[in-house]
Automatic annotation (TrEMBL):
This is Uncharacterized protein. It comes from the Bacteria. It comes from Christiangramia fulva.
Length: 145
């Protein structure tokens, strides 16, 4: 029971730290987040008024990007699958999952990683797929037409 309690406390502490950092970015850039989310080392903040998406990855240091959704042409979920039979599982499974933002003015695609099987902090891929779908919908609603 103690290891489970430790993991929950550590996860809660990390989420608070990530949210505090997101709010610091919001203040520095005069943003007001309508929606935020933390998924392992990934934190997202969406300002629907200014059409800005903040992506923070906490891997060693806290690196962040601010995307102007007015410059995003398309958003899509990308999955890399391991075919059935390659593991103990009888069905295919997700080994990598990202939300890809395509820039309007350059042939640049930026991937926001929601799940990577090689990352020890990642949890169940199906849960992350649901999270990615939620953000896909939110971002699509805020793309400039």
């Amino acid at each position: 029971m103690f290891p489970i309690l430790y993991v929950l406390i550590k996860q809660n502490s990390n989420e608070k730290k990530h949210n505090k950092f997101l709010q610091k970015i919001a203040e520095e850039h005069r943003l007001k987040f309508d929606k935020t989310g933390t998924y392992g080392p990934l934190s997202l903040g969406l300002d629907t008024n200014n059409k800005k998406l903040v992506v923070v990855e906490f891997r060693g240091s806290a690196d962040y990007d601010i995307f102007d959704l007015k410059d995003v042409k398309n958003v899509k979920i990308t999955k890399k699958m391991l075919p059935a039979g390659y593991s103990a599982s009888k069905k295919e499974r997700i080994i990598y999952l990202s939300l890809d933002l395509e820039n309007k003015y350059a042939s640049k695609i930026t991937g926001i990683t929601f799940y990577d099987e090689e990352d020890e902090e990642s949890i169940d891929a199906d849960i992350r797929l649901n999270d990615a779908k939620i953000w896909d919908t939110l971002i699509h609603k805020n793309l400039a037409v």
